[in-house]
């Protein structure tokens, strides 16, 4: 039977790659860095051009943005960047090829590995197998359903008492950030199966509530249709008019919503914050569940990519939270530990300071609503902009290893 399984896996892997890659065949990815307002304005104009899409970060003076250009417009884009003397770097000459080269597997026996990305069914099956294999430790439950009716599976690890402090971790609320759920699953695997007594000891101190797939609809869409899909797949006020669907769920929480020009009011935009706060079922489910465990919540941690950051509240503006020094101290300790296994450098700071205005995030909502928790963090994993969300599969395990090195420091600080 084994060779047949292998063939099946290979076939499915290729099929998925073809489906999502074709859309970007021959497209180039460029990193652009405006240094003047004139260059920034030019990039904003460029973003409206057919065949040009910004996949992360609006153009901002001093910040990197990433642009995908179709083969038809590449020469025009390059000429135009040269004309405005805008700093740019061709980071990927064929995005479609990179998508196809990402190793995507289906494994329905729950036996996944960290040298490939997996589809949603395989991830859910892994969670089921872990819960069946650890009936004394694990409860697999659902905290609600997505817009398209998929379960939002939460894996709870409770050793003994259920009243211990709870560490909450969610991943893949942004659909295309596949590395984030790979790390979420790795953490589950380590907590349940690692022989490391240091890791096992954490189960005596904490209960872990982990939501590996916070946006399953978007995740499936990023596998089958558009690899760069970030949002949910809900209907919005614009869907019937122009077909634009989905909301950036990490701009939809009721925390500084749309303040300071963060997030977008445009339903077709990557960062659309929703027609109102909490329009997204996925966000409501997370908020309601967190509220139900508020008495024991000690840490809120959300996993994302890319950038290599350990980020603290807030995404609103440069005002420092009262706990800033303590949060940064812990983030810096973690960053130093993250660097040890593979030398990767993680920077720390508030979301606003490191990135840009980003109100409406789950972290800021948790920070505002659960002040008794000791820490609220957002992770941005590898890389710093070369592959962006197309992190090659051979970096999954190193990423997981360096995450474990740092998260242990945070767990120690929470004791
Ligand atoms: Zn994200």
UniProtKB/TrEMBL annotation:
User: What are the Peptidase M14 domain coordinates in residue numbering?
Assistant: 116-414
Q: Where is the active site?
A: 380
Role according to the record: Extracellular metalloprotease that contributes to pathogenicity.
Q: Give the protein name, as stated in the record.
A: Zinc carboxypeptidase A 1
Please name the GO terms that the record assigns under molecular function: metallocarboxypeptidase activity; zinc ion binding
Q: Which UniProt keywords apply?
A: Carboxypeptidase, Disulfide bond, Hydrolase, Metal-binding, Metalloprotease, Protease, Signal, Virulence, Zinc, Zymogen
A GO CC term attached to the entry: extracellular space
Q: Which cofactor does it need?
A: Zn(2+)
Per the record, the similarity remark reads:
Belongs to the peptidase M14 family.
Which is a Pfam family this sequence falls into?
Answer: Peptidase_M14
């Amino acid at each position: 039977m084994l060779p047949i399984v292998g063939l099946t896996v290979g076939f499915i892997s290729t099929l998925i790659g073809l489906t999502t890659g074709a859309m970007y065949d021959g497209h180039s990815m460029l990193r652009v860095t405006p240094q003047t307002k004139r260059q920034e304005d030019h990039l904003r104009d460029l973003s409206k051009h057919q065949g040009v899409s910004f996949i992360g970060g609006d153009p901002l003076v001093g910040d990197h943005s990433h642009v995908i250009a179709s083969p038809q417009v590449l020469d025009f884009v390059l000429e135009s960047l040269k004309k405005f003397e805008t700093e740019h770097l061709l980071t990927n000459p064929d995005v479609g090829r990179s998508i196809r080269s990402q190793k995507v597997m289906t494994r329905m026996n729950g036996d996944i590995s960290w040298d490939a990305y997996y589809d949603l069914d395989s991830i859910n099956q892994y969670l089921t197998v872990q819960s069946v294999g650890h009936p004394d430790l694990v409860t697999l439950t659902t905290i609600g359903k997505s817009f398209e009716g998929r379960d939002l599976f939460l894996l709870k690890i409770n050793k003994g008492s259920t009243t211990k402090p709870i560490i909450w971790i969610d991943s893949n609320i942004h659909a295309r950030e596949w590395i984030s759920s790979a790390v979420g699953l790795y953490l589950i695997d380590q907590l349940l199966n690692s022989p490391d007594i240091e890791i096992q000891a954490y189960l005596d101190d904490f209960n872990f509530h982990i939501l590996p797939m916070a946006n399953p609809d978007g995740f499936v869409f990023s596998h089958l249709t558009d690899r760069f899909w970030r949002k949910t797949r809900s209907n919005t006020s614009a869907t019937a008019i122009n077909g634009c669907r989905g909301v950036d769920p990490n701009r939809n929480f009721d925390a500084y919503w749309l303040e300071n020009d963060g997030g977008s009011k445009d339903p077709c935009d990557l960062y659309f914050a929703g027609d109102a706060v909490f329009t997204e079922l996925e966000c409501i489910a997370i908020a309601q569940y967190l509220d139900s465990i508020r008495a024991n919540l000690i840490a809120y941690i959300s996993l994302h990519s890319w950038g290599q950051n350990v980020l603290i509240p807030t995404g609103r503006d440069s005002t420092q939270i009262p706990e800033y020094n303590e949060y940064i101290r812990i983030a810096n300790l973690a960053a130093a530990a993250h660097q040890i296994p593979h030398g990767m450098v993680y920077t720390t700071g508030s979301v606003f300071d490191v990135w840009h205005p980003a109100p409406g995030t789950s972290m800021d909502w948790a920070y505002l609503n659960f002040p008794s928790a000791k820490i609220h963090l957002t992770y941005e994993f590898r890389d710093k902009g070369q592959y962006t969300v197309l992190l090659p599969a051979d970096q999954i395990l190193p990423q997981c290893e360096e995450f474990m090195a740092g998260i242990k420091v945070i767990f120690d600080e929470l004791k």
